[in-house]
Specification:
The protein has 5 helices and no strands. It starts with a helix and ends with a helix.
């Protein structure tokens, strides 16, 4: 059975949308994990009559960048779909790229959750915790860049 050009382009674009959605799901899971721990960390501070460190919000926001990276992957897949790239490649790139991007966001949020707990308890180590989260961010950047290179 032959597939017409419009269907091929549509299936390629589906891969683009999946990349964005899976990245956003990961950002939501990551921000949710870090956000819950941040609230708990602030509560610990209030119970001890200590000031609650506003810096904890950086851990909550860290996973959000993966949604932006997912949007960039989406744009790259959309361009490739219009120029006639094979839809199985585009669909696979969207599914696997989006999944990997979402996973980095979720793991960033989990690391941010531990960082929030540690910083709220000790008041120390912000830079160290941010570096660990930055390493996870680097994986997300690698996914975005190398997937973009593969599609161009």
């Amino acid at each position: 059975m032959a597939v017409d050009q419009e269907t091929i382009v549509s299936l390629g674009k589906l891969g683009a949308v999946v990349a964005l959605i899976m990245s956003a799901i990961g950002s939501c899971l990551g921000a949710g994990a870090a956000g819950a721990a941040t609230i708990g960390g602030w509560k610990k501070c209030y119970v001890q009559n200590k000031s609650a460190p506003f810096m904890l919000i950086a851990f909550v926001g860290a996973p959000l960048s993966q949604t932006i990276y997912g949007m960039i992957i989406m744009e790259n897949i959309m361009k490739a779909a219009v120029t006639g790239a094979a839809f199985p490649v585009l669909l696979g790139a969207g599914i696997m790229g989006g999944f990997a991007m979402g996973l980095t966001a979720w793991m960033q949020g989990r690391a941010g959750a531990w960082a929030s707990d540690a910083l709220a308890e000790t008041g120390q180590g912000f830079g160290n915790y941010l570096m660990a989260i930055g390493v996870i961010e680097t994986v997300a950047l690698f996914i975005m860049v190398f997937l973009g290179k593969t599609l161009s």
